[in-house]
Amino acid sequence: MPSFDVVSKTDLAEVDNALANMTREISQRYDFKNSASRVERKDSEITLNADDELKLKQMHELLQGHLTRRKIDARVIDYREAEKAAGQAVRQKALIRQGIDRELARRLVKEVKDAKFKVQVSVQGDELRVTGKKRDDLQSVIQHLKGLALDRPLQFVNFRD
Predict the structure, then answer these.
(1) What H or E segment, with its residue span, contains residue 149?
(2) Number of other residues whose CB lies within 10 A of the CB of residue 8
(3) Beta bridge partners of 122
(4) CA gyration radius, the chain
(5) CATH code of the domain containing 107
(6) Which of 72, 96, 120 is the last residue before a domain boundary?
(7) 91 and 22 in one domain?
(8) 84 and 130: one domain?
């Protein structure tokens, strides 16, 4: 039976490239001159250190722009609350979301079942497996899922006949 997997993965090497480009741009921009602003990644957590709120907002725009240039959807970044550091300095952590959590998996399964497609959806860890008798049914499920307004990007991989 034909099947495919629904996943939400982020290429961390491309994120590293985007962060390197962002660091280079910060070092060259006039508005960041003599600034201690920097960005670091450790595992799936990005730390933005800025001199003040305005520079932090500019760093958000830079990060999203550089991720988009590297073909990474900016919705994979989950910003945490900004916290005060020494003086006016601000520190903010941002998580790179990987995989489909239980809440989103339940919502996707419910969406597919409510649309009455002739397929079966099963949750397998942090991904969904969709199986059906006809390839056309699977393609219509993909189109339906692409049309949903979600807080993170989905990829459709491992399509088998």
Answers:
(1) none
(2) 21
(3) 129
(4) 20
(5) 3.30.70.860
(6) 96
(7) yes
(8) no
Domain CATH code at residue 55: 3.30.70.990
User: Is there a single domain that holds both residue 27 and residue 88?
Assistant: yes
* Cβ burial, residue 132 (10 Å; 0-12/13-18/19+): buried
Residue 126 belongs to domain spanning: 3-8+99-160
Whether 46 and 68 map to the same domain: the answer is yes
Cα distances from 110 to residues 6, 9, 14, 17, 155, in angstroms, run: 14, 22, 33, 37, 18
Q: Alpha-carbon torsion 132, 134, 135, 137, what sign? A: negative
Q: pLDDT tens digit string along 41-95?
A: 998 899 999 988 888 899 999 999 999 999 998 888 999 998 888 888 899 999 9
Locate the DSSP E strands across the chain. 3-7, 38-42, 45-50, 77-79, 83-84, 90-96, 119-124, 127-132, 155-160
pTM of the model: 0.81
Give per-residue pLDDT as tens, 102-115.
Answer: 888 888 899 888 88
> To which H or E segment does residue 154 belong?
none
Under 8 Å between Cβ of 47 and 93 = yes
How many domains are there within the chain?
A: 2
- Written as one letter, the residue type at 30 is Y
Residues 17 and 88 reside in one and the same domain: yes
Distance CA 30, CA 34 (A): 9
